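pasting for ref
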Amino acid sequence: MKKNWLVFSIALAISGTAPILHAEDTVAAGNSAAGKGKASSCAGCHGENGNSAVATFPKLAQQHSSYLVKQLQAFKGGSRNDPVMSPMAMALNDTDMLDIAAYYSAQNISANPAPTLPPDEDADVASDDKKAKETMQALLAQGSNLYRNGNLTSEVSACIACHGSSGEGNKPAAFPALRSQHADYLIKSLTDFKSGARSHNVDNMMHMIAKKMSGEEIKAVSYYISTMQ
């Protein structure tokens, strides 16, 4: 029972946060067909169908429209900043955001290839196929445990409470789907949440969680999430 304490505690906290309960109510249905044309300027980074080819750019395919609209609004309003996304969002009106979100949410996310250690991770390990596979298997096991059970010692909450058993997220709460997301993007996002460089999230929840995570835990859970389908 102890290993599930962090799952229950964060779920209880979420259920008592009123603004979350109505997040989806503010998002009307967009026009996916119109969104396809409007998303053409997004394809350079995020891919034509929302499956970005560059691992540092997030996949948008099959993401909840509520979450996508929320992020575009944040970029436009200035509560989330990015040198590329902020000016692009400024040019969008509410209808544009709804249509683009509808298009990407209707696309199928692609599975990632099996994760491998980057060459600069540990030269000795990365150059030895057997050691590299064993190291990655250990990281994936650690990531799975952290995702599903959290870390009771350091009070890191389990990801499953908000993002679901298969990384499907929570559409009504506008919590993003994470399954099959690029590990590199997840590592950067968690690192930015940890440092405070990224702070746009409900009640600063992700900063409070990520700041308690070690660098190894961030890598482990990111690699694991990238394998979820």
